[in-house]
Amino acid sequence: MVKFNTFARGVFSSFQGLGLPDDLTIYDYKVDPKTGDFVTWESLVDPFTYAKDVPFFNLIVPTIDSTRVKFILRAQMDGGYHVLLGGNSGVGKTVIVQDYLGQAGEQYVHQTKSCSAQTSSRALQAFFEEKLEKIRKNLLGPPSGKTFIFFVDDLNMPLKEFYGAQPPIELLRQIINVKDDRNGGIYDLKKIGLFKKIQKVQFIAANAPPGGGRSVVTPRLLRHFHLINCPDLSNASMRTIFASITQGFMQDFRPEFHEMSGPIVDASLEIYIDIQKELLPTPSKSHYTFNLRDLAKVIQGILMVEPKNIADADEMLLLWCHEASRVFRDRLISVGDRDWYDSKVVTVLSSHFSRTWQASQFVDVLFSDFMAQPKPTPYVQVTDMEKANKVLKEYAEDYTLNLNKPMDLVFFKDAIGHISRIARLLRQPRGNALLVGVGGSGRQSLTRLASYMAEMKCFQIELTRGYGVNEFHEDLKRLLMQAGAENKPTVFLFSDTQIIKESFLEDINNILNAGEVPDLFAADELSKIIELVRPLAKAAGKIETKDIIFSHFIQLCRENLHVVLAFSPVGESFRNRLRMFPSLVNCCTIDWFTEWPQDALISVAESFLAKIDLGSAELRDSVCSVCMIIHSSVSKISTRFLDELRRYNYTTPTSYLELINMYTSMLSSERGVINGKVDRYQGGLDKLVATNSMVEELQAEIIKLQPVLKVAAKETAELIEVVTKDKAAAAITQANVEEEAKKVNVATLEAQAIAADAQKDLDEALPAFDSAVKALKSLNKNDITEIKSFAKPPEMVM
């Protein structure tokens, strides 16, 4: 830049009357098209007027750099060229382009596409085919009389394939290159050989320097672009931007607050610059990437308060400390890093505000909006933690009653802090959160409760057998319809355990960046969306065209939808995903769930053991302390285990809860065994007591009956004598009876012999008798007469 400045000054000085002043460089001047004179860019910067009803993300403060870049961008686009903006992340490339597109004019229509590591050429082609109109079978283009501008953000994010090519980049090159018949379009993916020409299309692209997941773009594509470098904003430019906003915001405050806007911006700027230098990203701290968006989030947080809720300058400083901590401190993972940040804030407070505060005065400060009803509630400082605990418990009970889902949480100090941070993000327009912590730390439960407190629907996918991309897209359709078409504030809670395929994150990356997923809705679904959103767009005063209504649908999605990601830092997946999908860091505020402190461990143990009778409060306190010591000692040994052996052993809140549950279950089991033995022994003892009582009663009764027994014994003896005598007489009688029985038996035997002999004779006589009877029956009167006629019948007849 210095060489070109010297060269250009030499060229201009050779012409009479074209010399430039020596106090500025050639980059600070432009030629006035009307007068032909050199004028400074600074004189062309539009003035900024703060409007409190304009959302923060729509506040654009013009600077010399943004004015210069936007002028060149407009000139190149009006000339029909493609433009590529390069520069570090957070310098405002996307803001400049979006600002230009909003003022490009009626002759242009535009769409934005954000790339990530998982962006494929197929998805990119589907995006182009969805946005462009089909003029003919083999021709695509913008509406009649228009030029289509596609803004491709993060151009160098797509991964390279095995042989080094980037298919999405090659597809762009094929569309842009219109020098021959084989380019300037796309091939139909269904009809082989059908080439669709694309006309009246221009591209604006933006990318950061290669590294950290970004690749080097092939020169075959770059040769089609006019490259504009967006330099890092100078401290003066950053101060101008944020001081303009804070000064406009402070106009509604009392006069003593007006002079605080400058120091607040300077203090924020100093922390931002120093934290970039001191806390560099490492493999274990890959999310330590700070850019201008983080500085903007600090100012955005300050803008959430109302003048009547800030009592004095000290409370305003506490608010600033709180917002800076939410952006910078909450993502720090080590005690050393947090101590460095605290000491830096102490230094800044002393140098910019003349306050000699200690870290303990601002570290635990909380601002939130859940302390009052009804909605919308003011953003105020939480000064009474006991009251906050009570309010959150009431919310948890209401959640359980109204949604019929248990919400049994322990609101110790850290839990209250985390839920207030989530509520803070849900309060902000386009506020998204990345909650990082191990399993069981309460990320999802706190998010559900915060959503309920903010009166928002909490949407979460449910994994089933065979769940894949198609099912995920159906869930996203319902999510976007709920947020956009139905205009309902919605929280999308997504956990890393639900990532079946990495393409899920590609869709979430698109939602974070642009508020939509390309090629998600079918034609009939788009028609349904247009009909549902048309009244909303009309109420907003927008023209009722298809494109404008769909743009309003996307705007509603971005305004109503809050994405909360619950990720675990364990393993390499977290680091790789942050590198491949930059929006996870750029578009989200990170809240790192650190290890539970000792007071939190004791609070959780007391909550779980409060339902169990341990005999005394002292014993309960001792058991809680033992649980805390066990968990803390294992955590310390795990750290030593990692240092000495380079092996990980994780002690999570889930393991602590399992420890308490194991103790309570074993206590219940052992109590059941002991109580069973006690019951058994008690039953036996009761039997013995009852038996002894019965024996005593029987003994008393026996004593009472002894005289009767003596009389009965005497009578019994006399009776025995009588019975003995009768028994002797009976024996004699029995002998006689036996003798008679023998005689009777002999007679019986004889009678039986006679009867047998008679029976034998009878058996022999019976046949003759039967024959005689038969012969007798056969006689008739004539036979009798004939016998009578015999004077001497024959012997046989007789």
Structure characterization notes:
The mean pLDDT is 86. The chain contains 25 helices and 18 strands.
| N→C terminal distance | 180 Å
Please give the count of helices.
25
Radius of gyration: 51 Å
Main sheet record: 5 strands, parallel
Can you give me a brief rundown of this structure?
This protein is α/β, with parallel strands linked by helices. The chain is built from 25 helices and 18 strands. The radius of gyration is 51 Å and the shape is elongated.
SSE layout and pairings?
Blueprint: H1 2-13, E1 29-31, E2 38-40, H2 64-78, E3 82-86, H3 93-102, E4 108-114, H4 121-131, E5 133-136, E6 139-141, E7 147-153, H5 167-176, E8 185-187, E9 195-198, E10 201-207, H6 219-222, E11 225-229, H7 235-250, H8 255-258, H9 261-278, H10 292-302, H11 313-327, H12 335-353, E12 367-368, E13 380-381, H13 385-403, H14 413-427, E14 433-436, H15 443-453, E15 457-459, H16 469-485, E16 490-495, H17 503-514, H18 523-539, H19 546-560, E17 561-567, H20 573-580, H21 583-586, E18 589-592, H22 598-609, H23 617-645, H24 653-778, H25 781-789
Parallel strand pairs: 3-10, 3-11, 4-7, 6-9, 7-10, 14-17, 14-18, 15-16, 16-17
Antiparallel strand pairs: 1-2, 5-6, 8-9, 12-13
Helix pairs in contact: 4-5, 7-9, 9-10, 9-12, 10-11, 14-15, 16-19, 18-19, 22-23, 22-24
Entry keywords:
18 strands; alpha/beta; five-stranded parallel beta sheet; 798 residues; single chain; 25 helices
